Amino acid sequence: MTVPPLQPAGLRCAHRVNPLGVDPDRVRLSWELQGAGTGRLQRGYQVLVTGERGGPAWDSGVVESSSSIDIAYAGSPLARGGRYEWQVRVWDERQAPSEWSSPAWFEVELDPASGWHGSWIGLGRIRENFSPPSEPGPPDAVAKALTPVPYLRRSFVLGQPARSVVSARLYVTALGLYEARLNGSRVGDAVLAPGWTDYAQRVAYQTYDVTGLLRDGENVLGALLADGWYSGFVGFDAKRAGAHYGTAPELLAQLVIGFADGTGQRVATDSGWRGRFGAIRHADLLMGERHDLAREPGGWDTAGFDAAGWRDVRCRERDARRLVADPGPPVRVTQEISPQSIERDAEGRHVADFGQNLPGWLKISVDGPTGHSVRVRHGEVLAEDGSLYTANLRTARQTDEFAAPGGAATFEPRFTLHGFRFAEITGYPGEPGPGDITACVAHSDTPASGSFECSEPWLSQLFSTIDWGQRGNFISVPTDCPQRDERLGWLGDAQIFARTACYNRDVAAFFDKWLDDVADAQLDSGAFTDIAPRPPALDWAGAPAWGDAGVIVPWTLYKMYGDRGILQRHFASMTAWMEYVERGNPDYLRTRELGNSYNDWLAPGDDDTPPELLATAYWAHDAALMAEIAEAIGRPDEARGYEALRAKIGAAFAGAFVSADGRVASGTQTAYVLALHMELIPCELREAAARELVEAIRRADWHLTTGFVGVGYLLPVLSSNGYTSLAYRLLGQRSRPSWRYMIDHGATTIWERWDGWTSEHGFAPPTMNSFNHYSLGAVGEWLYRFVLGIEPDPGSAGFGRLLLRPHPGEQLSWAAGAYHSVRGPISTRWQLSGGSFEFAAELPPNVTASVRIPSSEPGEVRDVRGHPPADIADFPGASGIREAVFEVGSGTHQFSGPSMTDVH
Length: 904
Ligand code: BGC
Hints:
By secondary structure, the protein is α+β, with helices and mostly antiparallel strands. Strands 19, 20, 24, 25, 26, 27, 30, 31, 32 and 33 form a ten-stranded mixed beta sheet that branches. It has a six-stranded antiparallel beta sheet with strand order 13-12-15-10-18-21. The longest helix has 22 residues, at 611-632. 56% of the residues are buried. Residues 132-137 have low confidence and may be disordered. The structure holds beta-D-glucopyranose. Beta-D-glucopyranose is lined by residues 480-481, 486, 490, 492-493, 598, 601, 773.
């Protein structure tokens, strides 16, 4: 039987499929390979990129390489605004060429200066000396500070018949949020665009293909404009709220039309636009929206509309802000959910339960008299008396209101986002029928890349809870929570969760964008800030485990996606960070410049981990990662320098915090976990230190005591040191603090605190008690890497080479799951029954793996054809565990043998 050649598919540029706007320096190409059979490998490739008129821009020639990801464009300079098509073909292990792939394409970002023609436009006067209430006060009082949403329009005549249009692109952004309209249609499906950046430095824009939306004669381009992160409420600083970057939103847009005869037409934002206020009386991310639907100027965005009475717009020349094509995915509505139940409360209000804590809003259909008003409040949980619990929202109002236009109508807010599972609806006329009330789930559109199932339903629920926490908080930037008056891009949270996030969803482009925010926020001193984007008044910086995200997140992306471009782009800012820390700590113990030092944030009980220990461990970790990063981007001298730095910090750490018997100062679980994970314990003391960690867990009556910083490493460290059953025991622990306690008490997203709600005390104090924070969900990475065993080989990046090392535990009889890597889908499944262990794995072409099966009798493990292992090895983390080793490539593989009897 002849095996067909490998075929490239799933082509991507800058981690996206056919991006409409890409920075020319980020054009890095990748593809997946398809082809049946086992052990399939790519031996070479050829990439062909052609420009606008079919002229070749780059022919890589035949490159002998197994690389199918992170191929940097190396052709002639890319034209700004240009469109390029590309294809690839590959040679497989038999040196047979594939067909050329189906074509993919990308369009290059506009020149930041000469590519733009419009001006910033807005409506009404810019609020001077805006002063929102200095005290939070009742949420409704804050709503007084909110202003109506401008409707902006420009009518123009298409220079040629619509059938002559060969391309039309709308480039659009806002200082604030926009919704673009063309001839009565909404342009694209992004919401909360253009997303959050440090608007003073960098503004992202979106590019839409609107070729099909133009018509003969008069056309109307329009936009709605809202405050969003730019001039609306964000964060908890009431004095600055509502005016972080500016005091009124502005729009910038240009429509570029190309006709078949090679001529073009351009329509840009300028003084020719007209505006007025309409149905949306206010719109704010935290506070919510109010619509008076009878005031909607019907047909305002279509030809023939009489715009008499519309006002001149405010017009301002473009300034030095950088306009960049958004490198990240847009926020979109990704799902609609019907209520599980709708109850009437004693006051006659409807309370809808969606069964899931989610980010988004409600879409409501009503049939009521003109002006009839309906109010929707959103909350994550219900109080004991069944009413909506909103105390934990602090000053975030999370309330939408609308006045009916008369007759049947559907209401849906556009520029707000609520974190909720329950909605309380006041004034709904009659009883809602099926489909009248729907929750729209909105977040950065990062497609799922991981899955996990197992024999314990509660653990499958934990997996879903972790993923929903991610969906709830990846809203243009990785935020801490989607409901209260905060919603900030905390670096610590992002760093702790980054690995889990990458397994759950394709977040390469999302984090690529956010790392620009991190770099923009960095202080001149080199300190990475605690929050990015950084609202101008907040310059908190340098906190251990928060600032360190500036090194850890790029490295994590490199390991997961193989992208060296990200490392190159941020190498200078990472270096500045390393210099900043070293300047403050010349004796290699990080005791100074600790900023706000959140330490092991929200560790249950007393957080006794010494801040200098935690800080120094992270610094050592940074140095080790920097050495790897420098090596990966061809900077061997710097790599050696960071190795030397790592050695000095390691020695200082061991001297200050590790005693001769392997104990680590303070004895907290987090202290052990950090020291072991970051390899700060001398080799000969590792086993002793691991035993001390177990002892610390036993002292806590077999509970964890880790906060944000220790939590993600806890189970990986236990498994890596031979204590997998203890890891399972902590995972399954029913009494708090534990993950299972959350699940048993109804969590559908991960709580901020281990004691967010307790049977003894009810809710934790509302000043800081979110039910949707992802950090404690960092345990997700253990499910993929250890339970399923889908782990990249430590020396590799981008999943070209794996260590398939499942860690079964008696608590589960089976587990199965998958991860869609940059090279294609990887899946594993195992089963434990009657003393035997069966393991199956499937790998895509061009991926190899060392399969490691733990067994009491590794010599008896067999693959499906009865072959014995290629090797038998001692598990590197603990004496007494032995593994059967098999070498595999692409295809489906199965193994079985005696299961391991637990040694600990
Ligand atoms: C946020 C956290 C954040 C922390 C800093 C909190 O208010 O919600 O998630 O990391 O502050 O310690």
